Amino acid sequence: MILCITEKPSVGKDIADILGASTRRNGYFEGNGYCVTWTFGHLCCLKEPADYTSDWKRWSLSSLPMIPPRFGIKLIDVDSYRQQFDTIKNLIAQCDEIINCGDAGQEGELIQRWVMQKAGCSKPVKRLWISSLTDEAIRDGFKNLRPEADLEPLYLAGLCRAIGDWVLGINATRLYSLKYGIRGQVLSIGRVQTPTLALVVNRQLEIDNFKPTDYWELKTLYRSTLFSASGKSFDSQEKGMALADSIKDTPLTVTDVTKKAGKEAPPRLFDLTSLQVECNKKLNLSADETLRTIQSLYEKKVTTYPRVDTTYLTDDMFPKCGPILNSLKNYQGVMAPLRGKKLRKSKKVFDNSKVTDHHAIIPTGQPLPDNLSKAEQDVFNLIALRFIAAFFPDCSFEQTVVNAKVDKIAFKATGKVILDPGWKLVYAGEKKDDDADKTQDSDDSSILPEFTKGESGPHEPRLVKKTTQPPKYFTEGTLLKAMETAGASVDDEDLREALKANGIGRPSTRAAIIEILYKRGYIVKERKSLRATPAAIELVSLIKEELLKSAKLTGIWEGKLRQIERREYSAQEFIDKTKQMISEITLSVMRDSSNRRIVAEQAETSDAATGGDEKPAKKKTPSKKGKKKE
Predict the structure, then answer these.
(1) Nearest to residue 507, comparing CAs of 330, 271, 348?
(2) pTM surpassing 0.70?
(3) Residues taking part in catalysis
(4) Closest CA to 271 of 382, 180, 406
(5) From CA 54, how far away is CA 51, in angstroms rounded?
């Protein structure tokens, strides 16, 4: 008998149908030589401190840092989990071979392997690796099962992530809570959550401390076009007016007219983070809502695997794209310009070197079910339009730069004319999201009249008053982008791709980290803006160890985990350096004699990364025993 272990009952049912395992049993399906069972996501987790020694149950500075000689796993103490685990364990004992059908990613690999390890599995294991749950994809996956050894580096990276989060999160949370908290208050610290919180806090402090400054720019109106003086701004109106008055009777002369053709490529396909950013911007969905929605679309077989960090497709996907486009029945009008033409294949869409385990998020070509929610319809629409746009030609434009002089002062006007909208036709019906300053200034999108080099004439100088602006508060979308690029502010897609290797967290965990910050009482949302609470500001100011709050340093850590996935870095070295780091942090905090305390109240709190909800015992108050999943 071959045993298949999936991550969810719904996926188990789909796979059982394909394999002909049609008889339903308690916790599994069987038939045709197969048994198909499932976990409920995480059935196991790393052991909590008290599982290693009773001395670690009580919160004490003298016990820190807590570093077990060997990390172990345990079954999560939930009745339904224990019952399903017993089913899996019994089936493992009876089977001849196992097929790991968990979600095809780092977390999925960790979930399934921990369950098999806990069950004492010694049977041969193969891996089902698929990017969608369509019948075709499942059948193809079973024809091309991978050896378990191929995924060993992925498992090791997931294991290192879990151990690293345990070592840093649990120890640092106890350390800061005992050293700086009051009345049993928990100050939650985490490898990803704390640098993310620091991004929000630092941005808020920039805004709070910002002092607006007025300044004036010299402009002049010539032939209904507003020219800007190059490099001319003034800290007082009087200085600007003096210069404007001095040139008002001198004619403006056009010194150069440059026209240059340009192209704008279609936006890249979605990875999870860019989809969450777009959904937050256009649909006002939170990162967590977007993740749940795209996961549901994946499970309904209409979109591909969602937890991806690439915006590319592999070359072998190209022949499948035509049929997928044809399947999008509600978008045939939008695709009319593609009819009768050879399908475009761009290196910015198809690149094997940019895809590891999964490609970008695209439609699967399956018919849309009738029961899609409004959010599911809206998210699918974004994915479908982005996929369609990828096969349209670039948007072609002509950019014009007009240089001029008045006396010795240089002026410039710029404009752009769209020659062929190309892919922008796909979005022609959408309302533009334009937050630009609506002034008379010519800019890259202005259409300029024809100018001739050497022409000259009267003009009207004027001063335009402006005020320096503070940075904007983070939204969930812009915070996700900052996490992805380790705090760098990046709009260029090529640079964004380059920085993703060292981002904070993984695409699949970033939404959860933001949710944790809400639950901790560290951030609140005002409309779309994220604001740090007083407790968060005080906590970040208290942390002197850059390793705990630096986005860039945490990004480097993420880069090491990706190197482990590629067999380029040692898992043991990663764990050893993590242990060394927490020892140094503990010593540094212990030496602090400032006697500071954080008194701001917080919402729900818990230890860092294990799912345990440990609390330091309050005097004359019994400790709480509730457990929450991290």
Answers:
(1) 271
(2) yes
(3) 305
(4) 382
(5) 7
